[in-house]
Amino acid sequence: SYSEEDHQFSVLLSPYRLLDKLLVVCPNVDYCEEVLTRCELEAHLLHRCRGAVTRCIKSSLGCSFQGPRSALQSHLWECPYRDQNAGKNPVAEGEVSTIEVQRRESEGLGVSVVGGCDTPLVCTVIQEVFTEGAVSRDDRLMAGDQILEVNGEDLTQATHNQAVAILAQFFPVCRLTVYRERAEENRPIEKEEILKITLFKHKGKQLGIKLVGKRNGPGVYILTLIPGSLAACDGRLKMDDRVLEINGQDVSYGTQEQAACIIISSPAHVQFVVARRSRPQTPDIIRSAAEHSKYSLFSDDHEKPVSPLCFTCKEKIVTINKDPSETLGVSIAGGVASHRGDTPVYITNINRDGCVGRTNVLKKGDLLVSINGTSLLNITHSETVRIIRQNSGVKVLTLRVIDSREITQGDNFQPTWVYWLQMPQICRLVKTITLLRSPTGSLGFSIVGGTDSTHGNLPIFVKSVVPDTPAAKDGRLKCGDVVLTVNEHSLHSINHTAAVEILKHIDGAVTLSVISWPGTVV
Length: 522
Fold this sequence. Notes:
Elements: H1 4-12, H2 15-20, E1 23-25, E2 35-37, H3 41-48, E3 53-55, E4 66-68, H4 72-78, E5 96-102, E6 111-115, E7 124-129, H5 134-138, E8 146-150, E9 153-154, H6 160-168, E10 173-179, E11 191-200, E12 209-214, E13 217-225, H7 230-234, E14 242-246, E15 249-250, H8 256-265, E16 269-278, H9 289-298, E17 315-321, E18 330-338, E19 341-350, H10 355-359, E20 367-371, E21 374-375, H11 381-390, E22 396-402, H12 417-421, E23 430-436, E24 445-453, E25 456-465, H13 470-474, E26 482-486, E27 489-490, H14 496-504, E28 509-515, E29 520-521
Antiparallel strand pairs: 1-2, 3-4, 5-10, 6-7, 6-29, 7-8, 8-9, 8-10, 11-16, 12-13, 13-14, 14-15, 14-16, 17-22, 18-19, 19-20, 20-21, 20-22, 23-28, 24-25, 25-26, 26-27, 26-28
């Protein structure tokens, strides 16, 4: 029967819009398993599908290769024109690009990176391009570019440390597949779609929906679907869908208990009306936060990449007895206004014959908080050296340190981005950045994280800074920065949507308080 409720829903979603929202499978099934809405299929096939037909980057020299994008890397190793210079193809906005970067012997790429599948950013992103190095000399990549593949090795499922290890491998020719976000003003606005889904109950089989409320807003949301349950097998309900109605009863401002009671009391079927946020599509080979979340929820514990944000390094007090003529016997780096930015001071190397080395109570990577009661935080490197020298003549040294979890390779310790993320609050240096909106209203950066993050309750992180926008032109805000406040608004314990709304609706000057940790150098 056709009810008034059905009529209202048909007005809300016209037949044409319903067709556009139909889920379809990418036709390149041999190479791509993407499921997406019908209206997104054309753009997916054109720019993002791993099975899409593409030409060799040496085609201008005469290479006739045409094949799936996933086969391009292996072809490039065998391409008859591989050693010839075809000129530099540009990195296009909003598309996946493959470029070749020439490296000199023992030369690094000359970039720092943040992110990884075990972090809120999910993908691996260039934070900074240094003036010396292969990437700077090539002059095509820039901060904010996402690195998807390196010489055929997929980075989209790599943790931060795995991605760094792959990028650090030396190849004379480094083939990078990258994605550069389009300027924000040209990107589609996040929208919400309303879906009506009916599930029929079966005796002996659970519906399998876990509901949750959110601290910073009203309503009931789907937390997860139990594997093998009716809802999971049906596949239409998704994690983080907001439940608006159940069997015609409005629960948009209801509680979990109210929603559960309606579901339990329904004898034969349960009809849901849900709202789902729909964000602009990124390439299918960039695993979205939702895809990563599904992986995390339904994999065995030993398969999950453990987020570095799950750990905070602990503080300890160390007492060292020494001869007054002895030096500490450690090398240090960092400090306010150091060459990698404002960081605390940390130990890079230890002389095993010195007083610290003999006691074996400190290690490379430990962070220095104070020495004999004098704080070493929020001061420059040279001031730290002066204070350490002032205490060199004493017989007993009391050091307050942060015990590092990171294991170093090589002689001198070099901290990674995740090393800094694990530092406790006393070590975090806050800086203030003021941006003026562009005429289009864009600040020019995107954010991830929040209380509803798929990695748990997290701070708000800067995911990308878009070229030629206020944030990019100012130059101080970097990918991987943690945003603490926006003008007078705190972003502590706030969900992602609320943070976006705050950023969108502040006019004029926008003042950000951020913690900015340096990325890992490769």
